[in-house]
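so my prof wants the structure for this chain in the tokens format not the other one, which i didnt know existed until like an hour ago. anyway here's the sequence
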Amino acid sequence: MFDLSFVQILTRAIAAALVLALMGFSLAGFARLLGDKGAVHDGKLTINPLVHVDAFGLLAAIAGRVGWVRPIAISPNAGRLGKATPVVVAVLTMAAILVFGRLILLALPWVAASWPTSSAAFVDATIRMTADVAAWTVAINIIPVPPLLGGYLLLTIAPDIHGWLVKRHLYISIGLAVLIVLTYRSFPATPFGDLARFLGAR
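here's what i got, hopefully its the right format
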């Protein structure tokens, strides 16, 4: 699959599950902090990856180290910041993902010194891949199309278009996943690759 080894597929899948679980939890949590309780009522305020991981977002993360979550409704009228609420929530979520990607690397010296030798290399690779997936995911999620985080900008400036796209999120997810699978080798050479490296990707 994608000329990746089984270990690479496994580390990317684990990394994606961690990053996407944090993404979904952060979206719901920041929305709640800003006054929108909708995501809480929908059961999204959880770190459980099964609630948040989009199957096609996971496929894209395995192929190209970038993923997205299932749609989480954030109302521009329910938050304390009015129409700016969805955008602020998305920006805070991106920041949380980037911070997580940097913080998890702090575990590497502990893994090298204390983890059982039999699995230390795998844990090391998974931690490094998690940081990569975090950076790549933020780099791609700036695109203003749902289900990506940038879609919340579209919600603010063109809610009707956003609503139309959200109703078709499955087709968009499939299209994004297919595009990433077909072009993953050339991704690092795009401006998104430059941004991902700036954000900390290898």
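also thought this was worth mentioning. The chain has one domain: 6-195.
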